[in-house]
Amino acid sequence: MKHKLLSILTLFAAFAALLSLPQVRVAAQAEPPPVVAIDAGHGGSEYGGAHYDKAGNVDLYEKTANLNVARLLAAKLRVVGYVVILTRASDSQVNVPATDRNGNGVVDTDDDLQARVDIANAAHADILVSLHHDSRTYDTAYNDATVYYCAECAHVADSMRLGQSISDALHDTYTLYGWQIPSRGIVPDKTLGKPSGHLYLLGPHNWRITRPSQMPGVLVEPLFLTNDYAYALETAPGGYDVMADAYYRGIVNYFSGK
């Protein structure tokens, strides 16, 4: 009798488990994975900033550092199920072949930036994170981390929340690894004094930006590449991984609402 009762209970449990499977699948499908557009700034003939050795020779271009971190970050996000779109995955510009993408009759850097925005928009990305490195050749002692956002765009609240999450993660991760890099926090992109008032990847439609990004976005300068201390930290074994980990934490915390 006891064995018969156990068999009945086992069958009942198995039947209940089968009934629950469709509900689990429906719930999983109702929450699609986040789509993250990662833009490794510069590339190809656009070198960005650089670090120079004592002899005055370039030993690291910004475009290379940006891509190194972007690749590691993409891998970390994909492991946990995020859909990641890289605007570039190699040392090249994005507007290839060179095309007048913003319709102003000139092919220049703006067209390469527009190509990056178009990729993020076409992917219906939930967020856009542009990875850069700051530089100041006339003051190599200068060093901090800054996250820029557009204060006049439709997604300003979410952009600020994303920016703060990444800024906090940079600070916390740097502290964890003993990196002494101060933080400026999140700053409106207009403070950079750009001719159009905004960074191309973040700004609203204006005479320079033809098709604006359609999602919350930030541009991050996590350290000054021209600073010897910061350069040594980043290029030491595991240095790029520390930075990718900081971005990863900031992005995951943003989507989890922390």
Structural account:
The chain is of the alpha/beta class. The chain folds into two domains: 1-31, no CATH class; 33-256, Aminopeptidase (3-Layer(aba) Sandwich). 42% of the residues lie in helices and 15% in strands. The protein is built from six helices and eight strands, in the order H-E-E-E-H-E-H-E-E-H-E-E-H-H. Strands 4-1-5-8-6-7 form a six-stranded mixed β-sheet, with helices on both faces. A hairpin with a 5-residue loop joins strand 2 (50-52) and strand 3. It is globular and about 45 Å long. The model is unreliable at 1-28 (pLDDT under 50).
Please write out the topology.
Layout: H1 2-30, E1 35-40, E2 50-52, E3 58-61, H2 62-79, E4 83-86, H3 109-122, E5 127-131, E6 145-149, H4 156-176, E7 183-188, E8 217-221, H5 228-235, H6 239-256
Parallel strand pairs: 1-4, 1-5, 5-8, 6-7
Antiparallel strand pairs: 2-3, 6-8
Helix pairs in contact: 2-6, 4-6
